[in-house]
Design brief:
Beta-Lactamase; Alpha-Beta Plaits; five-stranded parallel β-sheet; 24 helices; globular
């Protein structure tokens, strides 16, 4: 904890005279400074682990340890160290870069008063964050004690969030006919309630608010067991706070529980290792996070996916698959005596806790584990199976908000890696979960503000990809692609930020910006190539925007661009959700003499019926169908059937993601009109494709 007036100072400076000058400034300002200079990159890692630092001063021009490397190492270790970067001159580029990589302040040398004010503000903010961390630990400890009290209670108790069970004790699980509490975790509450009692309980299953608590109540219900048996109980309902979010507590008094519950509780043996135990996993992660908060000793979680499990389950059946998983876990326990916990989290994954405190060591451990498993064969039933693992490694310390946050980080790391089965004997597939403080952009308002900053600061751009005709069309078509400049975004921006942005109303502004930029480029292009036409994507938000067509008319009049040069693309899934608005928009575009197209076509339940009800000029086949068709044979049947149906309509067909000429004869045979993809050309900043070379 930061002591008033004392600073544990970490200095990253090549110019020692300048560093001493800054330290003397602090001492003259009545700070007691305990300073340490980082001399090499190797020293940096050791010093960061050695103790807690109150402040870091970093020379922007340092080549021994670069400012970016310093900030990267802090994030990698998930440390909170206020950092002030000092530059030799007033360089706006350095200021922007320093703030982007996470510095609290970027100052010019010799700005002494500003420097002291920045130190004061940084230390005050750090002290406030430290207090928040302290009370967060206290809260987590009290929550852990609360869970222990639930587990030890003779009442039947369950915790419910968003209409789903997230925690319960054995009494509650067995009252409703389940062997273990884990069997009910993530189960919808309504699935355990008889239809006659659902109406009385449903008002309590709506989203909860911290501002307006649900009034406590007692409700008589008839519950349903997995064997369709019924149980009558009185649920005492009260709103509580669980893992920082509002939740409901269901309590059935012990007087309503039958005597066998208590007897069975005492006689229960240890759980089988291969049981799916999400509660045990989350409990283990929670304890590791609490321990890190108390002792500052962090640990690692390995989220391990068995690549071949689901395939083996389909081919050999559930019994053999479960036997295989149990044998694998037994092997893990035997060969990993230092593991704090090994438990199965879901069908094909399990979690291992390790007393290792760096991601690099964790990666090495995980890679060795992958290699070890790849050299073994495991017998299940009458089969011998070779397995491979895919592993995500995550740090567990007091910066991790909750066990579920850790699990989500791991699942996201695996999702962002190469998909498909790992190859036996190939390089280990291990992914480290770097620090991702996504909490900085979480609420819808924050997302909207970020999106608005993208437009203001040109954080997005456009690219053009040609669409080539297979049947001699003289028009020169390009699709306009919005391109986020992710390399310029701050490090703490979530990887799915653009997807989130397009779920807000700012998507309308982005669509309009893209249209204006595209039309501006088209104006110059038409001087030399008057047959150029653009496909422009419209978001779901624009489909719902009643004022779009009026805006478009004015915008095109101002640029002297004919609407006949534009084709507006709507996604099939968006049209399905907002069908009436889509029909109206297509009619309005037609009145302006602009055309429309349906993209990602073919995945709805009845795509031809949708197409028959829309007056679109083009359809673009969904990439999933195209990828399947590339394999030929049976996987190509859906696209063949789809195109057979489309040919009967006055609609032109575009096939995207054409990456080689091998598929062209098939597309000719199907009667496809246009192709798009890397075989034609990658997206470029300019419209420079030579359409005279087609064919």
């Amino acid at each position: 904890m930061l002591v008033d007036g004392e600073i544990n100072l970490l200095v990253v400076y090549e110019n020692i005279d300048d560093a001493n000058r800054l330290i003397n400034l602090l001492r003259n300002a009545s700070y007691t400074v305990h300073s340490t200079v980082v001399e090499t990159p190797g020293d940096l890692v050791k010093l960061l682990k050695q103790q807690r630092w109150d402040l870091a001063l970093v020379e922007y021009e340092s080549q021994t340890v670069k400012a970016r490397d310093f900030m990267s190492q802090i994030k990698k270790l998930q440390l909170d160290i206020p950092t002030i970067i000092i530059t030799s001159d007033s360089d706006p580029t350095a200021t922007v870069e320093g703030m982007r990589i996470g510095a609290d302040y970027v100052l010019k040398m010799d700005e002494d008063q500003y420097f002291l004010l920045a130190v004061t503000a940084s230390l005050a903010n750090f002290k406030q964050r430290s207090k928040q961390e302290y009370w967060k630990k206290r809260y987590l400890e009290s929550e852990s004690r609360y869970e222990s009290l639930i587990d030890g209670s003779s009442h039947a108790i369950a915790i419910v969030q968003d209409g789903t069970f997230v925690y319960m004790n054995e009494e509650y699980a067995r009252l409703f006919g389940y062997e273990e509490p884990d069997d009910m975790v993530l189960l919808p509450v309504i699935d355990t309630i008889a239809e006659s009692s659902q109406a009385g309980l449903k008002p309590y299953l709506k989203p909860l608010s911290l501002e307006e608590s649900v009034a406590s109540a007692a409700i008589d219900i008839d519950g349903i067991k997995p064997d369709n048996g019924q149980v009558h109980a009185t649920l005492n309902i009260a709103q509580v706070l669980y893992q920082g979010h509002p939740a409901l507590q269901f309590l059935v008094p012990k007087e309503q529980l039958s005597p066998p519950h208590a007897e069975r509780r005492q006689n229960m043996g240890p759980e089988a290792l291969s049981f799916i135990q999400p509660k045990r996993v989350l409990d283990g992660l929670s304890k590791a996070i609490l321990k890190a908060g108390r002792t500052e000793q962090q640990s690692l979680a390995l989220y391990i996916r068995v690549d071949q499990f689901n395939e083996f389950r389909q081919s050999s059946g559930p019994a053999s698959a479960e036997q295989l998983f149990a044998i694998l876990l037994d092997h893990m326990v035997e060969t990993t005596p230092t593991a704090g916990m090994v438990a199965r989290y879901n069908e094909d994954t399990f979690v291992m806790l390790l007393d290792i405190d760096t991601l690099d060591e964790g990666r090495e451990y995980a890679e060795n584990l992958c290699r070890n498993i790849a050299t073994k064969t495991f017998s299940a039933g009458n089969e011998s199976v070779a397995l491979s693992l895919t592993i995500a490694v995550a740090i567990l310390n007091d910066a991790v908000e909750s066990p579920l946050e850790c699990i989500n980080q791991c699942e996201q790391a695996l999702a962002e890696g190469p998909q498909g089965l790992g190859q036996i004997g190939s390089e280990p597939r291990v992914y480290c979960c770097e620090s991702r403080p996504d909490y900085k952009i979480k609420s819808e308002q924050q997302i909207i503000e970020f999106a608005q900053s993208l437009l203001a600061n040109r954080g997005i751009g456009i690219a053009f990809q040609p669409i080539a005709a297979l049947k001699g069309d003289i028009a020169e078509y390009y699709e306009v692609l919005m391109r986020p400049k992710t390399e310029e975004y701050p490090d703490d921006v979530p990887s799915d930020i653009i997807e989130r942005v397009f779920k807000t109303k700012v998507a309308i502004d982005i669509d309009r910006w893209v249209i204006l930029e595209a039309v501006k480029a088209l104006t110059d292009k038409l001087v030399r190539h008057p047959q150029t036409k653009l496909f422009i994507n419209l978001s779901a938000a624009t489909i719902q925007d009643a004022g779009f067509s009026a805006w478009l008319k004015v915008a095109l009049q101002a640029t002297n661009i004919s609407p006949t040069q534009l084709i507006f693309q709507l996604r099939e899934i968006d049209v399905g959700r907002y069908f009436d608005q889509a029909v109206k928009l297509i009619q309005q575009l037609e009145q302006l003499q602009a055309k429309s197209a349906l993209t990602h076509f073919g995945l709805s339940i009845n795509p031809i019926l949708v197409l028959q009800r829309l007056a679109v000029g083009f359809v673009k086949i969904d990439p999933v169908i195209v990828e399947a068709a590339k394999k030929g044979g049976e996987p190509a049947a859906p696209m063949e059937a789809l195109l057979d149906s489309v040919r009967k309509l006055p609609t032109l067909v575009i096939v995207p993601f054409v990456e080689s000429p091998a598929i062209l004869p098939t597309l000719w045979q199907y009667g496809v009109d246009y192709i798009q993809g890397y075989y034609v050309q990658e997206p470029e900043d300019d419209m420079a494709y030579d359409f005279t070379e087609e064919g």
